[in-house]
Each structure stands twice: as structure tokens, then as C-alpha cells.
Design a protein that fits this description.
single chain, alpha/beta, FAD/NAD(P)-binding domain, D-Amino Acid Oxidase, Chain A, domain 2, four-stranded parallel beta sheet, 8 helices, binds flavin-adenine dinucleotide
């Protein structure tokens, strides 16, 4: 995608500097710019170069804490309205979400289904044979029961970040790819800006680090230690057999800590 600000000159000052052009940084830049702040977003590579561009981008409400469920519900609503809100598409697709429980975990499973329902999630409890009818290719012999959330789906994470970046620019933010922040600058204990590799100081009293896995490194330049832990995720892309049938729903296997989702609408 074309860099929307490729020809712009880097300003000397900003109200806020956002470091990182993933979904968090681009979204933050938009939200601040639409509130009238002068925002500069600096990305060391290109928009969505980090975890965002490699994400499965599932949007599900199936979480175990009320707070997580509520945040996910707000996010799901936003992803559905993404085009109306931003003017750009995030290509959100509703697929439905299935996950199952083994016999020994049934009490915790029932409690979770109750919690989801009490938060307004359309969590449908299924027997393995119901699930088999709904998703004929899913192996359910291990499960004593399953839950189905018909509203879950996935977005295109690259389109999401580019949508946020583009609408941030529409609202007046300035975005710069290939600009790496090497450190945060302070004077008398206060943030005064960021140092950009090869370009010197950009002055700002507010700096937002949305640098994903690199956040700790930048925070360390002002001696802040953050409790951020990395978890490596691996991705396999498989071609469905020609006689597979309709694209499957998202299936989350909490026992194997894996999930699967279709990619695109086409059957092969
Ligand atoms: C394989 C995989 C699958 C996932 N699946 C899901 C899922 O299904 N659902 C879900 O909700 N989440 C999922 N996630 C998690 C989700 O993708 C991340 O939580 C999210 O993308 C993080 O966004 P971010 O903007 O914080 O970080 P990133 O997308 O990592 O963005 C950080 C950006 O900062 C830039 N940067 C770093 N250092 C500097 C610097 N010094 N100067 C300038 N720029 C810098 C990087 O180049 C990068 O572009 C998945 C992640 C992975 C890896």
C-alpha cells in the first residue's frame, strides 16, 4: 500500500508522538487526531510490519473474565461498524466460533457459558452430535459439550491497521514509515521527545509507546521496566481438500492451544 505521508517533511514538534504502526499505534493516532491533537506516528518499518500483520485477527467474545468479555464486545461492535466509523474496510467476516470441553472440565465450562450469557453473548451450548451436524468436518469425539458463538469472526489485520492509519491522516495525523525511534528523551525527569535514528530529536511532551514486542526496549531508555512477556505464535496455512464443503467456523482448541479459521470465502 502507498505510504500516505511519503512526501511530508518531519516536523520538529508534536503534541503527541506515537511509536509503532501496528493496530494499537494506528488506532491511537486516529483517536487522538480526531480529538484535535497534533499527532506524529513513527514506524521503523511499515504499517502492520509487526504482530499485527501476522495476526489471525479473530474477534471473539469467548473470554473468561467479565472485563475481557466486555472489551471484546465493544471491539466486535467496532469491527462491524469499521467502515462507517473510519470510511475504510477492515474486511470483517462473521464465521461463528466453536470450542469444546472434556468431561472433567464440564463444571467450569457450564459456569463460563452462564457468564457469557449473563454478559449478553449469544453462547449456544451444543452436544457433540449437534456440533457434528453444524460442522461435519470437526473432530468432536474428545468433547463432552461445545459452545457456539455465532457472532465471532475475523478481520484482515493489515487492512485494519492501514484503515486506522489512513483515517488518522485524514484527521490530520502525520505518519512516517522507515523512522525508528532509538530512545525517549527526558529533561529534569520529564519526557521532552524522541530521538529518531538518523534524524535527531522530535520534541513532544507526550510519547505513546505502541511498539509491540519492542516496547520494553524503548521503555528501558527511560529506565522503566514493564511486565511484558512474549509468547511465540506459529502459523500454518493449509489448503482445504476439494470435497471439504463450506468454509468452517473458527474452532479454538483450548487443550492443544491452537485455533483454526478459514481464509477468504472461496472453497478451493
Ligand atoms: C501469529 C499471531 C496470531 C495472533 N492472533 C490473534 C487473534 O486471533 N486475535 C487477536 O485479538 N490477537 C491476535 N494476535 C495478537 C495481535 O496480533 C497483537 O496483540 C496485536 O497485533 C499487537 O498490536 P500492536 O500494535 O501492539 O503491536 P505490533 O503490531 O507488533 O506493532 C508494533 C509496531 O511498532 C514498530 N516498532 C517497534 N519498535 C519501534 C521503534 N523503536 N521505532 C518505530 N517503530 C517501532 C514495529 O515495526 C511494529 O510495526 C496474534 C498475534 C500473532 C503473532
Amino acid at each position: 500500500m502507498r505510504d500516505p505521508m511519503a512526501s511530508a517533511r518531519l516536523p520538529d514538534t508534536a503534541d503527541v508522538v506515537v511509536v509503532g504502526g501496528g493496530c494499537m499505534g494506528t488506532s491511537t493516532a486516529w483517536h487522538l487526531a480526531r480529538r484535535g491533537l497534533g499527532v506524529v506516528l513513527l514506524e521503523k518499518s511499515h504499517v502492520a510490519a509487526g504482530a499485527t500483520g501476522h495476526s489471525g485477527a479473530l474477534v471473539r467474545q469467548h473470554y473468561e473474565a467479565r472485563l475481557g468479555i466486555r472489551l471484546a464486545r465493544e471491539s466486535l461492535g467496532f469491527f462491524r461498524r469499521f467502515k462507517e466509523e473510519t470510511g475504510f474496510s477492515c474486511d470483517f467476516r462473521t464465521t461463528g466460533f466453536l470450542s469444546g470441553t472434556r468431561e472433567r472440565d464440564l463444571p467450569a465450562f457450564e459456569a463460563l457459558v452462564e457468564l457469557l450469557r449473563s454478559e449478553g453473548v449469544r453462547a449456544e451450548r451444543l452436544t457433540p452430535s449437534d456440533a457434528r451436524t453444524m460442522e461435519p468436518q470437526l473432530e468432536v469425539s474428545d468433547y463432552a459439550a461445545l459452545v457456539h458463538d455465532p457472532d465471532a469472526g475475523y478481520a484482515d489485520p493489515i487492512a485494519t491497521a492501514h484503515g486506522f492509519a489512513a483515517v488518522a491522516v485524514v484527521e490530520g495525523a502525520k505518519l512516517f514509515d522507515n523512522h525508528e525511534v532509538s530512545s525517549i528523551s527526558t529533561r529534569a525527569g520529564r519526557v521532552v521527545g524522541v530521538k529518531i535514528r538518523g534524524a535527531g530529536l522530535l520534541s513532544a511532551e507526550r510519547v505513546i509507546i505502541a511498539a509491540g514486542n519492542w516496547t520494553q526496549d524503548l521503555a528501558a531508555t527511560v529506565r522503566a521496566r514493564l511486565p511484558v512477556r512474549y509468547v511465540r505464535g506459529e502459523v500454518a496455512i493449509l489448503r482445504r481438500p476439494v470435497d471439504f464443503g463450506a468454509p468452517p467456523r473458527i474452532h479454538f482448541d483450548f487443550y492443544g492451544n491452537t485455533y483454526s479459521r478459514p481464509d477468504g470465502r472461496r472453497t478451493p
